[in-house]
Amino acid sequence: MKQEQVEQIFNPFYTSKLGIGSSGLGMSVVYNIVTHSLNGEISCHSELGEGVTLTILLDLVEDDKRDEE
């Protein structure tokens, strides 16, 4: 992925695919779930010709109800 694409990946309606079924909403939905619903962080790193790495960081929350059982 080119750096210009990496910078746009989480923007709504951004897509690098042409054709039917490419709304460009997938990664923006993931971004909103991770950052707003789960209070996490998501980042994208790409090496051109090597691949893309998405990193998602979430807080660990211990379940107090399991301790009661």
UniProtKB/TrEMBL annotation:
<keyword id="KW-0547">Nucleotide-binding</keyword>
<dbReference type="InterPro" id="IPR036890">
    <property type="entry name" value="HATPase_C_sf"/>
</dbReference>
<dbReference type="InterPro" id="IPR004358">
    <property type="entry name" value="Sig_transdc_His_kin-like_C"/>
</dbReference>
<keyword id="KW-0067">ATP-binding</keyword>
<dbReference type="InterPro" id="IPR003594">
    <property type="entry name" value="HATPase_dom"/>
</dbReference>
<keyword id="KW-0808">Transferase</keyword>
<keyword id="KW-0418">Kinase</keyword>
<dbReference type="GO" id="GO:0005524">
    <property type="term" value="F:ATP binding"/>
</dbReference>
<dbReference type="GO" id="GO:0000160">
    <property type="term" value="P:phosphorelay signal transduction system"/>
</dbReference>
<feature type="domain" description="Histidine kinase/HSP90-like ATPase">
    <location>
        <begin position="1"/>
        <end position="60"/>
    </location>
</feature>
<keyword id="KW-0902">Two-component regulatory system</keyword>
<dbReference type="GO" id="GO:0004673">
    <property type="term" value="F:protein histidine kinase activity"/>
</dbReference>
<dbReference type="Pfam" id="PF02518">
    <property type="entry name" value="HATPase_c"/>
</dbReference>
<protein>
    <recommendedName>
        <fullName>histidine kinase</fullName>
        <ecNumber>2.7.13.3</ecNumber>
    </recommendedName>
</protein>
